[in-house]
UniProtKB/TrEMBL annotation:
GO biological process: protein histidyl modification to diphthamide
Pathway: Protein modification; peptidyl-diphthamide biosynthesis
Family matches, as InterPro entries: Diphthami_syn_dom, DPH6/MJ0570, Rossmann-like_a/b/a_fold, RutC-like_sf
Entry keywords, A to Z: ATP-binding, Ligase, Nucleotide-binding
Name under which the protein is recorded: Diphthine--ammonia ligase
Signal peptide: none
Gene Ontology MF annotations: ATP binding; diphthine-ammonia ligase activity
Location of the Diphthamide synthase domain: 1-239
Origin species: Perkinsus marinus (strain ATCC 50983 / TXsc)
EC code: 6.3.1.14
Length: 649
């Protein structure tokens, strides 16, 4: 990618540029927001340092020299706005983030080839969310490779890579003006001591200190000398260093100019070693076993009666606060809707069908109505349409706190090119926490599109994750070493997500597989990663998954096993009659009209035949997913009905 680096001159922004370059990205230019320039100060003046949760402003007078050392153009802008960001809307014209927007617009005009932004965020959601918001509006990717790296490991990485960063601001107990100008390598033992004494953040993520990078492998034109400096007292116990004549000095000839050699500590990112150290890969007893995927099956012919087999609706049972829809597609949307298509339904392409159905959903069930949508299931008849569908999908869901989502290819009935199922909660009852990380990092698979990694609702009770692929996080590409590696990486991402959301107890996992991946061995290996019995995992074989992946995993989790009572009634069998035997009115199942989900083996059943055998109440509250193979744990089944009832303790 062609990258603009957001820099303050500090260790974080400069080290992330090293990671960008090492991973093959091209740093085209750098950009900086700085405070208004003030006249020369006396020793007692507080100077032009601004307190910002978003940017480091101390040392801004050295930034032009940093750009000179890097050998790339610098774009600067005065920071004029304040902290008035509204998370619900994602923007405010008077927020400091709008200064960043204007700065990046200037960069894009000068360098239209730029398509990514380097961001030095480590743990600050405040900073990450705002950079992501601006970049999403400008169509730019965010590269934040240090996001949520352990601070002790990151500090060692910086020092080992040759980052010479000096303290230019101190603002905590244990640090004072005597420490200004000292390097990270000099202070590392002292930082460790402070951490052991009172939880000092060794990378300064608690605002303990700020730095200026005076030398590093990326400085190709020399190292930075600060020249004449003076200490400024900003406030009680807060001091910073100001330089009046920073300049470049030639580097020692003995210092290597070999990039790879200088950054050899980053070689752990060349393969999967970093992720192995972080989340060990488990061996599978079927390590070398694969199977030939079933051949494509013939879908049934659509009939007029199928158009009204089930009308799109959102239902809850009498014992749950969560509402689930049945299958919503062009043939289930009520024909009386005012959102008539511009052409006959049978002639609509996948984008027209997608638009038609999503307009119905957003008009009747969207967050603007009485429900907040938490989760969206997308089935497509052909995964090659995924990019176009995703583009249309973006227009109908919010960029801020969007629902979680998974997308799968299924053998949909003829005439249906796309189908949705949604899960929602009444807006009046909604207590929802959202995790949506769009930045590319080493942390976990990013969600660049309009969907979140996870939603946790009901005061922290239940967590639902998006469908997660086994992508290498920092490249967002699939490994070439087989389905076992994909499953491992998917589970690693899910581990990071559920850990961050404090919901690590898995109640139910859905494992989608495609290609030559063996179903039962994949379920067994997934159970080992999740530390659950295989019966907690639903395994489903499908024709295809996004990006040509072999596996995709979605979880329902809680913080503890006692947090929520999730009653998932499962009925399996070889016929609809057998399934219905378990739904006798005597147990109250029918009267509750609990939303149901039926997975059926498309090689053995036709959807219309199943619908025709279902009682009306069940038919109108049932979603259908055609699969090519299904199992619960290690037991294969050709017909499975889930009736979900979520109750909170």
């Amino acid at each position: 990618m062609k990258v603009v680096g957001l820099i303050s001159g500090g260790k974080d922004s400069i080290f992330n540029l090293h990671l960008c370059k090492y991973l093959g990205h091209d740093v085209v230019c750098v950009a900086n927001l700085h405070p208004p320039i003030t006249p020369p100060l006396t020793h007692e003046d507080t100077g032009d340092e601004m307190d910002s949760y978003m940017y480091q402003t101390v040392g801004h007078e050295v930034v032009p020299v940093v750009a000179e050392a890097l050998g790339v153009p610098l774009y600067k802008q005065v920071e004029t706005n304040d902290l008035v960001y509204h998370h619900e809307t994602g923007r405010d014209d008077e927020d400091e983030v709008e200064d960043l927007y204007d700065l990046l617009v200037t960069v894009k005009r000068a360098h239209p080839e730029v398509n990514a932004v380097s961001c030095g965020a480590i743990f600050s959601d405040y900073q990450r969310l705002r950079v992501e918001n601006v970049c999403q509006r400008l169509g730019l990717m965010v590269l934040a490779f240090m996001w949520r790296l352990p601070q002790d490991r990151l500090l060692n990485w910086m020092i080992d890579t040759g980052i010479e960063a000096r303290l230019v601001k101190v603002a905590c107990m244990g640090l004072d003006e005597r420490h200004l100008g000292q390097t990270l390598s000099q202070l590392k033992p002292y930082f460790t001591k402070l951490h052991n004494q009172f939880g000092f953040h060794v990378c300064g993520e608690g605002g303990e200190y700020e730095t200026l990078t005076t030398d590093c492998p990326l400085y190709i034109n020399g190292r930075i000398e600060l020249g004449d400096t003076r200490v400024v007292k900003h406030s009680a116990d807060v001091y910073y260093l100001q330089s009046s004549n920073p300049h470049l000095e030639p580097k020692n000839d003995a210092i290597t100019t070999d990039w790879k050699k200088a950054c050899k500590s980053l070689s752990v990112l060349d393969g999967l070693e970093y992720y192995e150290q972080d989340y060990p890969r488990l061996e599978d007893e079927h390590e070398h076993f694969t199977m030939q995927a079933p051949v494509s099956t013939q879908c049934y012919e659509n009939t007029a009666s199928h158009q009204h087999a089930a009308t799109a609706c959102l239902r809850t049972s009498s014992t749950t606060s969560v509402a689930m829809s049945n299958s919503i597609d062009v043939l289930s949307v009520p024909p009386t809707t005012t959102l008539e298509p511009s052409c006959e339904i049978t002639n609509m392409d996948v984008i027209q069908q997608c638009r038609y159905v999503l307009e119905y959903i957003t008009a009747t069930l969207a967050p603007s109505s009485e429900y907040e949508i938490l989760y969206v299931e997308v089935q497509v008849s052909d995964m090659s349409s995924f990019a176009a569908v995703n583009e249309e999908y973006c227009k109908h869901f919010p960029a801020v706190n969007p629902p979680t989502r998974y997308c799968i290819q299924t053998d949909l009935p003829q005439g249906i090119l796309i189908r949705f199922r949604i899960l929602a909660i009444p807006s009046a009852q909604a207590v929802v926490n959202t995790l949506h990380v769009q930045s590319i990092s080493t942390w976990a698979m990013s969600c660049i599109g309009p969907y979140s990694q996870a939603k946790r609702f009901d005061n922290g009770g239940l967590l639902m994750t998006a469908g997660v692929l086994g992508l290498i996080p920092h490249t967002m590409s699939l490994p070439t070493t087989g389905w076992q590696y994909e499953l491992w990486l998917a589970m690693r991402s899910l581990h990071k997500i559920t850990n961050l959301m404090s919901s690590e107890y898995t109640v139910l996992a859905t494992l989608f597989i495609a290609g030559r991946t063996p179903l039962i061995p994949a379920v067994q290996l997934a159970a080992k990663y999740l530390n659950v019995d295989p019966s907690s995992i639903m395994g489903l074989r499908l024709p295809a998954l996004p990006k040509g992946a072999s596996v995709e995993v979605s979880l329902i989790n809680t913080a503890h096993s006692t947090d929520a009572a999730i009653n998932v009634s499962v009925y399996v069998g070889e016929s609809v009659e057998y399934l219905l035997d378990g739904l006798a009115p005597s147990n109250g199942a029918l009267s509750q009209c609990t939303p149901s989900l039926i997975y059926y083996d498309v090689t053995r059943y036709e959807e219309l035949d199943i619908y025709d055998q279902l009682p009306t109440d069940i038919r109108n509250s049932t979603a259908m997913i055609p699969v090519r193979e299904a199992c619960i744990g290690t037991a294969r089944h050709s017909l499975v009905m889930f009736r979900n009832d979520i109750r909170y303790c």
